[in-house]
Design a protein that fits this description.
Elements lengths: L1 H14 L12 H5 L1 E4 L4 E3 H7 L5 E6 L4 H16 L4 E6 L4 H11 L4 E5 L6 H5 L7 E5 L5 E6 L4 H10 L2
Parallel strand pairs: 3-4, 4-5
Antiparallel strand pairs: 1-2, 1-5, 3-6, 6-7
Length: 166
């Protein structure tokens, strides 16, 4: 009987565990991965986050070839206008630096710009569980991830999250 109770308790505890994929911190793999900066240098992701220590950060993972990303550009601009104290970091999944830089210029993206070296199927993308772009991640002022997986249809959730952090 004790074994059945223990199994039942373990099952209930496991069933109630958070399974929405929400993470509160980046993996060591993601943090140590280097990204191409717009000046041509390579920067570790952890150093990008450190640059904005003490600020709320909105990270957008996008690509110039992504139709949904382009469609969401007005929403990210509205988000920036309504949340000027937030740091914005754009991580491109473009295949070439030329296309990435042309996309930044074409869409007049304001914020820190980096390109992931190995794109959608690479180490960094896997380390952040990337399965769709655009993807938005929000990091609070303490460095904790408060929204790990949001896409272009989740701007209400993104706005609510930012409002709760003010």
């Amino acid at each position: 009987m004790k074994k059945i109770f223990a199994l039942l308790t373990a099952f209930v505890a496991f069933s109630c565990a958070k399974t929405d994929g929400q993470k509160t911190e980046f993996s060591k793999v993601a943090l140590s991965e280097t990204l191409l900066a717009s000046d041509g240098s390579q920067v570790a992701f952890q150093d990008i986050l450190k640059k904005h220590e003490g600020k709320t950060i909105v990270i957008e993972v996008w690509a110039s070839w992504c139709g949904d990303c382009v469609k969401a550009m007005p929403k990210i601009k509205e988000l920036q206008a309504n949340n000027p104290d937030v740091a914005y970091v754009f991580l491109s999944m473009d295949k070439t630096a030329d296309k990435w830089k042309a996309g930044i210029e074409k869409h007049a993206l304001i914020g820190d710009q980096y390109m992931v070296n190995d794109q959608m199927g690479g180490v960094f993308a896997k380390a952040i569980d990337l399965d769709w772009i655009p993807r938005y991640i929000i990091v609070d002022k303490t460095g904790k991830i408060v929204l790990y997986r949001a896409i272009e249809t989740d701007f209400d959730k993104i706005n609510e999250t930012l409002a709760s952090l003010k």
